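Task: fold both queries, return tokens.
Query 1:
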Amino acid sequence: MNKFTNTLNHIKLPSSLSEEIGNAYSENISKEQKKLFGQFFTPAKVANFMAGLFDINIQQKEFKILDPGCGALTLSCALIERIIDQNEKIEKIEIDTFDTDPSLEVVVTNMSNILKKWGEVYGIEINVNYSNSDFLLSHKIHLKKDINTPIYDFIISNPPYFKIKKEDVRLSVFNSPLQGQQNIYSLFLLGASKLLKQQGQLVFIVPRSFTSGVYFQSFQNIFFKENDIEYFHLFNSRNDGFKKDKVLQENVILKAVPKCKTRPVKIKISYSKGISDLELLKEKEFPINLLFQKIGTLNIIHLPVNELEEEAMNLFSTWTNNLGSYGMKVSTGPVVPFRCKSQLKHRKPKNSNYAPLIWMHNCHKMRLNWPNKKTDKEAWIYDNEQSNSKTIRNQNYIFLRRFSSKDDNAKLVATPHLEKYFAHKKLGIENHLNYLYKLEGMLEPEEVFGLSVLYNSSIFDAYIRSLSGNTQVSATELNALPLPSIDTIKKIGVQYLSLNGQGIEEIDNIVNKAFKLSKKHT
């Protein structure tokens, strides 16, 4: 318990008051407003955990702090409480806060006054400078510079979360261009880091999606060139971080510092199921070169949260091949239904040139369910000159779902397909599916089933989860992922085929045996 609660045990801490005020405010605004501002207030328990990650200089008499998406000031309050608890010499704390929601001004003003009076009890000057403006645009002069601007000792934030359009003016505030569709939270993280003093510290809670994926590569290239990560905390549940707002999001808390000559060789990772068990978190150190890796041209960050993910990370790091090594490739299905609606049919017309159309719902682990008459999706696509570019040759493939639902048990679902399954020369592959094929010639059945078994295994799913917070695995990522030798892949396929269609329950046993893996996880 903080030292000052003993003297003022009849007075609530500012972070607790802020949480109460924030909850009352949140209950009286619409979902549309929350979505507009990407606004999800931080629970006090999470705020105190984040504040606890800062190393407090017990000799420093003044601190300059930034909270770039301040909400109801819960994070600011928690950090101020932490500083006062740890530093007996503290005399002054100044904090700059920003939020674009104009209706929060009354909330922030009230909490600022509470903080100021609370600080006076201890003889500490606490000044809150609030700006109802966009943090990034307010600092565009600093962010455009080639060198960082040292302003803040500490930065703490739960930034807004929403995708921004390519023409968004906030993308132009950075000197180095950011490629692809960005999320506002990554811009806040990058912008804030450029304002840290050399000995400064930054703690953010953000979605985990920045750790992998094509869209975040340019962000990673800039952020990790200038900063080092010292700590990650993961919530192993998607729905416990911001439960009251019903946010289904894989969140991660990170602590970063400006890069220096003595770069850390290890990073601490902790995880909890959610907020309720934060005190029971499990913590472990990992070599930085094992967590930060490059697969193909992609930068990835592994964040294992259990022994199976750690085992997968270690196993895959020993593999040096990928699909390209074997003349194979994954592409995205070319059929976009709303663009060729007139060429799609539920039933095949007689005496006409139609090809089977494969959708995501047709594809299950090791099994193609086509046609599925229980859905409203068309099962056929007209194969004429107009739709010829939307159909592909019927041959041996692996169909891979591009998306999983947020509550799906598997990140990846692989469905083997052999040419003989259809008496048609062409197939239509809907855009939510990826398909794996050989660039020259055709996949052998052993390759089809060997790769399908591997993709559907628990160890492969654990590897994907260790590097991705997304609900999709892109074709770019699949093409880059490490693979074992082609002989091993074929042996796995042969063993599965020898079970004559009864092998789906044996997938993990087959893969575990092939790589001498522990059985205790399955």
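Query 1 returned. Query 2:
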Amino acid sequence: MDKSALEISVRGVVQGVGFRPFVHRIAAACGLSGWVANTPGGVAVRVEGETGSLSRFRALLRKEIPPAARVTRLSMRKVPVSGLQGFEIRRSRTGGNALSTIPPDISTCRACLAELSDPGDRRYGYPFTNCTNCGPRFTIVSSLPYDRERTSMAAFPMCPACRREYENPLDRRFHAEPNACPECGPRLSLRGADGALLPAADPAGAAAEALVEGRIVAVRGLGGFQLAADATNEGAVRALRERKRREEKPFAVMFPDLDAARSAARIAKADESILLAPGAPILLCPSRASSPLAPAVSMGMPAVGVFLPYTPLHRILLSRAGRPLVMTSGNRTDEPIAIGNAEALSRLRGIADLFLLHDREVVQRADDSVVRRVGRGVYPIRRARGFVPAPVPLPRSFPDVAGLGGDLKSTFCFIREDAAYLSQHLGDLELVPARDFYAEAFRFFREFLDARLRAACHDLHPAYFTTAFAPNAGADRIFALQHHKAHVYSVLAETGFRGKAVGVAFDGTGYGEDGAIWGGEFFAVDGPEVTRAGQLSYFPLPGGDAAVREPWRTALSLLREVLGRRDAEGAARRLFPGVPGESTGLLLDALDKGINVAPTSSAGRLFDAASALCGLCTRAGFEGQAPMLLEGIASRRPAGTYPFTLSGENGLLAVHWNGMAAGLIADAMERVAPETIARRFHDTMAAAILSAASRLAETSGARHVILSGGVFQNATLLASVLTGLRRKKMVPLIHRQVPPNDGGISLGQAYYAALRVAGG
């Protein structure tokens, strides 16, 4: 018989997800000999046998990988036959990049769900059921190498039955580090609002009853605490808002199943695969008019954050409660999520009426991930639980470097060899606890990656915490990179694109290289070089951060630019009836005198202004509220566009907003329907992007257009731009693995530093 042998290297999320037992199983099914082993960067396989059997093995290896695995690279090479007998799972090779051996946390698999609901199974109703295909991973790791003794499961010695499963290569719990059962694993407990232990034979059932009664329950989840409330109870949701100090930002809702979710949101077939994926993210879906959810859940926003139970404990709670539940981060607004029992009893006192606790420690904080769907694929908004620490594959290998991120929606990123590792979402770094969380997480990643940083890159803004942190990063060299260039580099890193392109970075604000506040930028991309090539023309931004909180300020600035001081004051009285005339007068004085006023090209602030002029949002309760409301009411039917012009100024292409602002103001003054104004504004912004990108592409010969920045979270705008580019036979490049907002700039910073250190 003709025999052959193969040596196979597999990279990606292939450890802790049942990959070695899977290889063992298909090798045995194909009658092959050899071995499989974990390596510092992935999995190594050696197989030999009949040539036809090897072909079948290769096909199965590609086609039937475990559901939680994600293969980023698979290479095979022929080697001499060595006469191996049988197939074995060999001892793992240690050393090197330990982070690559830790998969993200994985939602409960079908097999474990079947056990959970089977009265005859020893894990019936057990809220910590898991196997190699599901369960906690990243959030329980305390040190390296990744094995049970170095996770928070070390406190739970396995019983003989669990030990047999753990040591059997043919069992789906083979080397499942969190393996446990009611005999040997973590247990639930219940405490009252004052922290007193409550006797409860069924803590989860008691918590579900409390939720049905309208009470708020703090639940210890995978990556930390969540605050739960009945999503159909207006009073309960309002109480949660008041206690958490989250006045208007929408809440995500966990539904028992897809059918329940469909009652509140329009869910397409492509959405189902995202909701049921191992990462189980929150998916932003259009709301239904007949939704059973309390109005206070979404606070007038047109979308609802939908997700499904991703742990057995969630499944039990939702099943017992029999209704959708608000599941929001266990913190007060802007604080890090609580993870410890004592920490939660202290920090969440006054918010929760009841605490559903357990005794398995959460080591790594991780909020729930948030995504949209663009086309048929995922478009990340917040990348955390279920995605981190899975690496972003890079087009080549690089020296060790780090990107430190920004101050809002902060993340950091390490590049090691041919992979980029982003931290979980760390939040806004205004408060000391959030900064401590950042430093703690940074140390953890650096240790697990065994990173010897050749360079670190920070934002150009001198007042960012991450800029001040740069000297403490432990890097040989420090680089600074302009904020919007980092957005463009993040797409280059994700896609591996190396040719000529036009980069479009539209977001709120970022410190510009000329000292102005940038936010509506066009770039010429040529391989690793990114050069500013165009912008939205500057307009006066009054009050800095105050303009973000009060969009009427930016709107008033545009009124003054278009109508002049006197008419602007009268128009403001009519358009912003809730703003005192004294306030508008003082702000106009400041604009006239240039006091606390900066030039900006911010696309995000133009969206704010349009929302205020439509009467939707003069004061914002959270970042992004004004443009979200504007997008939400935009008519589905085209309504024409406002005028705009392009010109060359000082070597840059300028997109002039004056005509657009004049048309928008005229419509607002004439009481044109806000739905029409919103649609015209969106279509005008899309047309301006397409015109500028086309002009720059003609100059450079580029066919590709990069789209990044928080403004492109706007699905209406993004869809219009993508459609327009394709009609022009241009190729859009967008995010698929990291957020387009500031949560993705750390990847761009790290990639820039890597290119610099590696010499381009």
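Both queries returned. Flag for query 2: The two ends are 51 Å apart (CA to CA).
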